[in-house]
Write a structure and sequence with these properties.
This protein is of the alpha/beta class. The protein is built from 27 helices and 20 strands. The protein binds thiamine diphosphate and magnesium ion (MG). Magnesium ion is lined by residues 156-157, 185, 187, 189-190.
Length: 667
Amino acid sequence: MTIPSRLEKANAIRALSMDAVQKANSGHPGMPMGMADIAEVLWCDFLKHNPSDPAWVDRDRFVLSNGHGSMLIYSLLHLTGYDLSIDEIQNFRQLHSKTPGHPEYLLTPGVETTTGPLGQGISNAVGMALAEKVLAAQFNRDQHNIIDHFTYVFMGDGCMMEGISHEVCSLAGTLGLGKLVAFWDDNNISIDGEVDGWFTDDTPARFEAYGWHVIRGVDGHDAQALRQATEQARGETRRPSLICCKTIIGWGSPNKGGKASSHGAALGEDEVALVREKIGWAHAPFEIPAEIYTAWDARDQGENSQSVWKQGFENYRAEHPDLAAEFERRMAGQLPENWQATAKQYIQETNEAAEKLATRQASQKTLNAFGPVLSEIIGGSADLTGSNLTLWSDAKPITTDDVSGNYIYFGVREFGMSAITNGICLHGGFIPYAGTFLMFSEYARNALRMAALMQVPSIFVYTHDSVGLGEDGPTHQAVEQTATLRCIPNMSVWRPCDTVETAVAWQVAIESEDKPTCLLLSRQGLPCQARDTGQIQNIRRGGYVLSDCAGEPQVIIIATGSEIELAMNAAQELAIAGIKVRVVSMPSTDMFDVQDDDYRQSVLPDYIRRRIAIEAGVSNGWYKYVGSEGKIIGIDTFGESAPAGDVFKHFGFTVENVVNTVKELLT
Ligand SMILES: Cc1ncc(C[n+]2csc(CCOP(=O)(O)OP(=O)(O)O)c2C)c(N)n1
Ligand SMILES: [Mg+2]
């Protein structure tokens, strides 16, 4: 058996990619054909991974930020021995295959993050590299480096052009994430053609300005040069590295190589045949010679590296049994033993203290209470620490020189912060949170969607949740944001009304395993509502009866967050007028929606049709709960700049208006 050359191995990627795209008549052959040589060098000479255990905690992370080139990673996973059969490769982009259009986390073994929205893969990778560095600082001892791996990223011109790459690469430079190594696919092509008309940055200089270690002008088709550059990048541990690889998109295609026409469409049967001829690939589609499979197979080596690591971990355990147990707990995503008791006790105390606080303050108090028992908590704010109140008493800032802490000063980088947070989640070992004003969730939006799509439990802390923030005015006053966040599938949204609901919302967010959470918190003080034990237990069901009347209610008022106070005051007046009112607090509509029918009926019985919803935001989502006969007190315009009380009054958030609306409903 002859040993295949590097080029032959790379050509296996090219063949699989062009054939799979051709068969699906859909996909992106250009990038995998252009980056095949880089991938061959990285995966065969450097990547530490075990195809038989894609969850090995100390594996190197590989992120394909230019996710349109998904056939590259599918080829690599298939060839190196992951559980991804040739049938799956043949089923590229078909319903229920493990080879979807863009790489999807949880769907394909070995895919570390969902990519496709350009710029976010590199951002997740920054989160992963940060997680690695923090975890290493927290757990490695003496000679025991139980966490010690690289994060490798492939990124194209598109990722470079996206603004988010500036946010995250700038922060990665500042934090000195030395084990982050990015390969830039510098092919001078994006969809519209040669990039000279829209992308002429001096990219190497840009990254040098961020404080990166930049390796310029590497021939992306020269294995020796790539090997040398990768070694150099790995040797530089103080700064992240960017390897600038000059490549030809669609390398091997006589008529489409170097052209945008190879970017995002099948090459065509004729051109595919010409490629076979030109690169000397005589095998039928999806046929890989045994010697090529053997040369790529990474399973034995992977098993070996993992068993060496395991032995190292056992030595570590012998010397540091407590740390080892804590490490295993955290990497398994299990909460500490005393968690439930801590949360329960704090919620009870909070209920008894019955303090009037802004829910952002309540959130900080909750972090003060929960943080000390959760070594996995890590988080920060996009330059609004003092407003978001995301810094808690025992939190320790992460700095370039000392990353053993758990508080991140993200700077004014909402989108980057959110995608980094997802990356930290994906890495494992942490429960990350990220804070800004609710309004600026807009800047972060696609990262929120990606968290929900990937089913990762990132926590987004959004303060200044409505016109109730007052004088900063309509630029800062959230109106439609709450409703639109609720529209994201698999996103849990909480808008608590007081200290107790805030603590429960945090508890639910921390316990979440398969969905992200948005915590929407007020700037202004809110009174604490009285509750019995049963009501406290029902908060986590998303909606519950907060106050009721004797007998059957004539009307139900549903409210969230800061509008609960108003609902309760109006209910009191209505009771005096002899009207029977139930108040339902609905901090999380998505949680309420997944309760069983009996429970939902016990809160909102079908036969009580007279209902009002009160929320300082757009009204449309509330028809689902009040029905066509109900009324909504909401805000369907932009806000106003004025003191909060005046703004609320202006928009009809007064006891008088609520009482009158109820009376109208009853006539
Ligand atoms: C945020 C985002 N915007 C737009 C797209 C659509 N899109 C996919 S690839 C691409 C061009 C990317 O160019 P480059 O990274 O240079 O890829 P190449 O053609 O070199 O493979 C665009 C605009 C996307 N996937 N994500
Ligand atoms: Mg390009």
